[in-house]
Amino acid sequence: MKKPSAQQKPNSSWFQKVQNYYWLHDVMQIYVGLPTWVLLSDGVKHIDWMELTPQSATHLRPSHFDIRYGKEFERHIYYLKSIKRSAKEHKPFVDQYDGFYDFFLPLPSHEKRHAVLYSGFFLRQPPDWNSLAERWHKLTGRVPVDSDAEFVSYARMVLKLPVFDESLLKGVREFLQCYAEFLTGQTGSPPIYEKVDHLRRELFATRLPNPSWSQEALGLELMVPPPWAWYADKQLAPWMIEELGITRIPTTVFTVMPLSQGSEGADSVKTLIRNSQIQKECLAFVRKVPELVAAKLQDYGMVFMTSPDPNKSQVQARLQVRERAELVQNFLKKQFGLKSVAGIGRPVSSGDDLHRSYQEAVLALHLCVQTEKPLLFYDENPRARLGSVYVRLNRAAMDLLDAYEQASVAGIKLSGERYAREVLEFASGSVEVVRGQFLAFLFNFLERARKRSVLNPEDEKSYSEHFCKLLNDADSIYRLIDIFKETLRVLSVLAVHPLHGSKEIRMQTILSFLAENFQQTVRLPQVAKKSGFSVPVFCQVFKETTGLSFVVYLNKLRVEEAKSLLRGSHLNLLQVGQSCGFQTPHQFIRNFKRWTGTTPGDYRQNPSQFR
Fold first, then answer.
1. In angstroms, what CA-CA distances link 380 with 125, 339, 365, 504?
2. Angle made by CA atoms 554, 557, 559, in degrees to the nearest 5
3. Residue 493: its pLDDT value, please?
4. Which of 180, 372, 399, 427 has the most CB atoms less than 10 A away?
């Protein structure tokens, strides 16, 4: 064989650059997950942005909300000051704006412009209700309320940001210094990729989740094979065994969801905060459990992948999976004092993707809520063996409509529960499919009511808009089911007692309107007109529905919101009263004392002592 000439000999330096890039890209995308840019500033007012790690256009960040609420100039000034500081100090540092932290690393100047490697946004402490409420009020001037869709969106954005303690902060800073070295062509010993892999092995893999591995293993992208499919004989790669703490390919999926206690579930933001904390604690807990890998189940639960001992019988293997699910449930009970439900899918053959088992586990999880069972195997559900899901879903929908035609309240309730279960199975865990099925059915239901002359076209349109808003605002499957059942209850009254039912639906629309607008100036004639009643008739129907007069009910809503703000915010008493819609301090104190038996100041000192 002819010996290659000098020109044909491989150059080892180019390959080391590829290795450096590969490891930087991999670790950034999988573990660190921070958007990163090179910023170039003229030092006066202009900044050029060069994005290095593109994010999805729908991936919200704090800067999106700054622009939305007219605060982009303040953030721009913050960036200018940080860039100037970087140019002056010539060393990496962490800065923060409005509680959101960022890394700034100096780079060599480019054409007389200051250059920095910028990476953000992250938190130093897990967010709680107080920090979220204060940031929202400072950003928008609005009181944080659960019915405000923009506040809920803001809360979701904040809860998705990474939280770095001192050790993670140090590790990410070292990683970004490696990134800066790579960008500026610096070389050293050991090579960049070795330093990055050391950080991955010793810090990131032990503290941060690997969501891409879980998504591929669960088959969430159906055309993407599971991680082990890329290796000969469908084996786990050494890094998977080391990082995930498993020795066998998972074959079974189970899911766990904490249950709300008391009125907790009525506040979706506080539930989101609680669930975020639970998810982080579960991820840390599972790293200590052999043959168990965890991932987040949207924003309401956890999904677990496991494999029972292959030497055990089918019955013993089933028992082992149950024990692991109960282990997680016991952890939630001990750590958070919460009950939970667990759904377990059927096992798949070793080496296959887990998508079917995952779908079944999610369905079994939600069936637990419907059947009030703490744990359910998918194959314990007899409906799983009764023909095509499409046929069953259509039959359940027709039975529910027939129950409506027969004006049977009991029949509507039973058929409605069956229909909800069929929708769950049909949706395979998709919130949007559940939402779409419920919306389509309710439109059909209302159309039949109109054809029976129970509803006029104007009422049908009004109720459709009302129910659509409720369902569109719901952020989880269990919340969608609760809304569907309550809506069905109201509509069943319309079927049996058309006149009374029409009044009740109108009142439900008004009560939802008041719940979203009680902080504003709300006048009785305006609300009566919105309901389609004259003022005297509205007052009579309103009191029949709520047991309270319109003004008393409105003030009660305001007092309940004031109690929440007194417990969970640092607003002063005057600000609390104004935020809740009270025109004067006297009006606030008088109504607050009527409903709680004490003054706002005394309540803030000892809220647990008062109703």
1. 42, 21, 12, 39
2. 110
3. 67
4. 427
The pLDDT of residue 212 is above 70: yes
Phi-psi region of 474 (alpha: psi -120 to 50; beta: other; left: phi over 0): beta
SS3 (DSSP) at 388:
coil
Percent of the chain predicted with pLDDT > 90: 30
- Beta pairing class for 36-41 and 113-122: antiparallel
Q: Residue 341 phi/psi, 5° resolution?
A: -120, 150
Residue/partner pairs of 575-583 with CB below 8 Å, 24 or more apart: 576/600, 579/143, 579/519, 580/143, 580/518, 580/519, 581/518, 581/519, 581/520, 581/521, 581/522, 581/554, 582/558
- Contact call for residues 253 and 354 (beta carbons, < 8 A): yes
DSSP state for residue 583 in the 8-state scheme = S
CB 291 within 8 A of CB 248: yes
Report the phi/psi class of residue 111: left, alpha or beta, with left for phi > 0 and alpha for psi in -120 to 50: left
Parallel, antiparallel or unpaired: strands 301-306 and 100-110: unpaired
Enumerate the β-bridge partners of residue 598: none
375-391 tens-digit pLDDT? 999 888 655 544 466 67
The reply to whether omega before 121 is within 30° of 0 (cis) is yes
Residue 146's identity, in one-letter code, is: D
Q: 493: closest CA among 401, 397, 399, 413?
A: 413
Alpha-carbon gap, residue 159 to 161, rounded angstroms: 6
- The per-residue pLDDT for 2 is 41
What are the residues whose beta carbons fall under 8 Å from the beta carbon of 547, sequence distance 6 or more? Answer: none
First to last CA, the chain: 92
pLDDT of residue 383: 54
Q: Report how far residue 146's alpha carbon sits from residue 293's, in angstroms, rounded to the nearest whole number.
A: 33
| pLDDT one-digit tens code per residue, 588-606 | 888 888 888 888 888 888 7
Q: Are 390 and 405 in contact (CB under 8 A)?
A: no
Residue 466, C-beta contacts closer than 8 angstroms, at least 6 positions apart: 505, 508, 509, 512
Mean pLDDT to the nearest integer, 52-62: 75
What does the pLDDT look like over 291-341, one tens digit per residue?
Answer: 999 999 888 899 999 999 999 999 999 999 999 999 999 999 999 999 999
Inform me whether the pLDDT recorded for 166 exceeds 60. Answer: yes
- The band of 170, judged by pLDDT with boundaries at 50, 70 and 90, is very high
Whether 224 and 361 have beta carbons less than 8 Å apart is answered as no
Contacts 24+ apart (CB under 8 A), 401-407: 401/444, 401/445, 401/448, 404/445, 404/448, 404/491, 404/492, 404/495, 405/448, 407/495, 407/496
* Nearest-angstrom CA–CA distance, 478 and 476: 6
- Radius of gyration, alpha carbons of the chain: 29
pLDDT digits (tens, 9 = 90+) for 539-586: 888 887 888 888 888 888 888 888 888 877 777 888 888 888 888 888
For 327-339, give one letter per residue: b (16+ CB within 10 A) or e: ebbebbeeeeebe
